[in-house]
Predict the structure.
Amino acid sequence: MKRYSAFAVAREAFRHHTGWERAWRSPEPKSHYDVIIIGAGGHGLATAYYLGKNHGIKNVAVLEKGWLGGGNTGRNTTIIRSNYLQDPSAAIYEKARSLYEDLSQDLNYNIMFSPRGVMMLAQTEHEIRGYQRTAHANTLQGVATEFISPKRVKELCPIIDISGPRYPVLGALWQPRGGTARHDAVAWGYARACSDMGMDIIQKCEVTAIKQEGGRVTGVETTKGAIGCNKMGIVVAGNSGQAAEMAGFRLPIESVPLQALVSEPIKPCMDVVVMANTVHGYLSQSDKGEMVIGGGTDGHNAYTQRGSFHHVEETVRALIETFPMISRLKMLRQWGGIVDITGDRSPILSTTPLDGCFINCGWGTGGFKAIPGSGFGMAQLMATGHSPLTEQFGLNRFREGRFIDESVAAGVAH
Amino acid sequence: MLILTCPNCGEAKDETELHAGGEAHLKRFGPGSSDADFEAYLFERENPKGVHFERWHCAPGCGKWFHAARCTMTNEVFGTYSAQTTEPPENIKDAITAKRPGWHWRQFS
Ligand SMILES: Cc1cc2nc3c(=O)[nH]c(=O)nc-3n(C[C@H](O)[C@H](O)[C@H](O)COP(=O)(O)OP(=O)(O)OC[C@H]3O[C@@H](n4cnc5c(N)ncnc54)[C@H](O)[C@@H]3O)c2cc1C
Ligand SMILES: [Zn+2]
């Protein structure tokens, strides 16, 4: 693989950009791999990448029914933060956030990580208490956050109306090193690095059955034929219920649509990410100038990949109250993704009742931020059978009542 | 926009006037049951891509619960029926079979 660099850009400029090579190969599947990962979203690709990089397991195929990064990874609003309440969450999200810091260098691919700061507004007394509690927990966990005053909120983000009629801004939980990254680039960067290690990323290859012998996984049936494996990782987000059924077990998961929308591009007007959980909306400005707006999930499960329109109305109505200047903006696009929600709003990174088969799912409305940490931990779990990052996130926690309750931190879709 | 007819009051309600209550026909397990049964009752869901039986609350209307059969891929509604049932009634099953030939749900094939 030719490395990307300033020199390469200059060189290609001189020869009319004829020398760029394809970022990843598109091979036909082999008959057998050491490891098969189902799902080429961020989490699947990151798992494959760290299997190769950290554990030397490179005979790996990543199977994708559509195009890589075409699931939730390419549909999210790219907020990255790690200000969660519970210790296991803070550990894996902060691992991810810190890996994001130099992921562009690690992958030799510009993922445009922008640690511009994430602000979660407190608009009720209850939220003040909740965020102060989180800020104290974050101090103990070594995650840099602080609870800031309304005055500071206004300084950091002048377009906020802090004295809104229904929900004035009473403070905020501020994580200065949170931010955003380019979502497609995260998938593409990992894919390119995986392909470079000799791994096969096979697109338009849907897994239709999971084969087992004597309680152990032996391979899959796909739309491109049968493929064997020693170990398998299921990393399919909203489709986890289907995949688990193929593997013969059920999950504590329901799949619901989550929506987002973007406005026409405007001049730079806000350089932080703002989340307003009480009124249920969040806002940031992309490098192109579009205002990126995230909404709420549907109350009923669905695979429609579109979501109910009234959620968009509610979100926009709420945001106009806090950001009056956006009231005249035209919206360019609206879309939905199918997110996988667990009972305690925390993910599942786990062994399964089927030997050799692992699962990584349940990231729900907030897994983009976790991609590097999740891949890191998942690869360790699959290669060695144990990872300190994932051990609290096992499937067995539901039976044992050991929930990792993040319904406050994840109270709004993000 | 999803519109469901509440079988209790007979009103066709927009989804904004209803509250979704999740999978219907769960078999309850209480104190004394095995951990596995209790876990399955509380957390494990069928989460099907296709025909789904679900609970809805006619919240600002008559205030009662009812059941609906809906396709989770298209949002097509096959029918609504009383919540005082342990499995979908025959007419609902027939309505589904008419539109999804060969369809069956593992417990009530
Ligand atoms: C509108 C929206 C906004 C969001 N905003 C944020 C945010 O701001 N911050 C944040 O951290 N998170 C956010 N999220 C959540 C985040 O997008 C997801 O948690 C994350 O992208 C999940 O990544 P993944 O790799 O697990 O899944 P995906 O990217 O969905 O990848 C799974 C892949 O598996 C493939 N697949 C499924 N079934 C099969 C099969 N049978 N065979 C082969 N392939 C299969 C799918 O095609 C898909 O490409 C948002 C999500 C949405 C929908
Ligand atoms: Zn009614």
Notes: The radius of gyration of chain B is 15 Å. The first strand of chain B starts at residue 3 and ends at 5. The domain at 3-26+52-99 of chain B is CATH 3.30.2270.10 (Folate-binding fold). Chain B touches chain A through 27 residues (CB under 8 Å).
